[in-house]
Amino acid sequence: MLNPATAKAVIDHALFLGADFAELFVEHHQSSSVELISGDIDKVNSGIDFGIGVRLFFGHKVLYGYTNSTDEEELKRVTSLLAAKDKRDQIAQAGTLNLSRYTDRHQCQLPLSQGASLDAKIAFLRDTDQAARSEDEKISQFIGRILQREQQVEIFNSTGLHIGDTRHYTRVAATAIAQDGNEQSTGFEAPGALTGWEFNTRLNARELGHQVARQAMVKLTAEHCPSGEMPVIIGNGFGGVIFHEACGHLLETTSVAKKASVFHDKMGEMIANPVVSAVDDGTMSHEWGSINIDDEGMETQRTQLIKDGKLTSFMVDQMGGLKTGYAPTGSGRRESYKYAPTSRMRNTFIEPGDSSLDAMIGSVERGIYAKKMGGGSVQPGTGEFNFAVQEAYLVENGKITKPLKSATLISTGPKVLKEISMVGQDFALAAGMCGSVSGSVPTTVGQPALKVDNILVGGGN
């Protein structure tokens, strides 16, 4: 996408102006989406974006700018504007740019650039819509959306690195709305993968429609959740959003380097119950949060964050490594060429344990089974969180008795880690988007079901 000779000239220019490190991030991004509402196709959108990000290091200072031009003089102009903020002339040259190669773990069969069928996507959405509406006459609305993206990146830097990657993303979102008089409730699922439109072979349109409709119907007649401190079983898959938001961000050098994380000085210490082990893994085949290389050009890896309750690693980007002394973990990520990279999560999850879901529920005299988590808010630095439960049930005398609505879980990430006493075997992952200082990036959350011995539950009662 960018002539290597041009890249070398721009990087040499940056070093001549005094930069300790220089990088060019080149991106070509293509997207296509189709949306169905009320049984009809409402929107069909597509677009292409291209740009080049220029990043310079002056000590621990990061300077960043971008342009949509590949012209050498324009790139040098952007570089000069950045360097002018901390200019110190020196004579230096980048190493020879050598194209790096690696094994692609995520081969794509039906990429967007080869014209994946719009008709097939529309047919999938119509099938999902019909299945949702057939679940019950109280399903008043269905909204379906399919997004497919293709992101080509090329990275050059002053260490001599030249590397590129093409990432194929496909995600399906389905929402069912149930209504009975003035009462209304929703069901939602949004599976995604690092793959082309062949992702549809892993999904069953009718099962997806039934699933979101069933969620909506369960909540429609549910009773209000009781309030107070009690044991809670958090379901598998998207239940991992609590660890991601309330703990995962605290393990990124984005916060650790600033000592804004409560875990910044806890390396090697017990920060969780010994039954808890957690991982951030970018290598998992075709998972939504996976990458071959991060957005700094480093090959991705599996990073053991917590092992048997002990903090064993942080997620480290290049600048985070310089500031903290920890080795980079292939975790430097960004939304696009418009953002400088920072340490970010990939596929982040609590590993399976040896308890069964039945055993967990059987151990609770009175509490909540949070089968499906929803969204929430988190306080950066402390991990204080407030998360809604999308699908919840009351547990009494070791048995699930009735569905609940308006359930909210309130605590802090560090506290919850120590309150987990049982970890299940039913491991699952779920796709999501994560926002931070380097924009919004695809990430996967996950866990088996787990038991939290004591957590504050907010409810309608």
Automatic annotation (TrEMBL):
Record's SUPFAM superfamilies? Putative modulator of DNA gyrase, PmbA/TldD
Does the UniProt entry include the keyword Hydrolase?
Answer: yes
Which keywords does this chain's UniProt record carry?
Hydrolase, Metalloprotease, Protease
Record InterPro entries: Metalloprtase-TldD/E_C (IPR045569), Metalloprtase-TldD/E_cen_dom (IPR045570), Metalloprtase-TldD/E_N (IPR002510), Peptidase_U62_metallo (IPR051463), TldD (IPR025502), TldD/PmbA_N (IPR035068), TldD/PmbA_sf (IPR036059)
Q: Provide the Metalloprotease TldD/E C-terminal domain boundaries.
A: 227-459
For whether the record's keyword set contains Repeat, the answer is no
Residues covered by the Metalloprotease TldD/E N-terminal domain: 22-78
A Pfam family this chain is assigned to = PmbA_TldD_1st
All copies of domain Metalloprotease TldD/E central, residue ranges:
116-220
This chain belongs to the protein called: TldD/PmbA family protein
The taxonomic lineage of its organism, from the top, reads: Bacteria, Pseudomonadati, Pseudomonadota, Gammaproteobacteria, Vibrionales
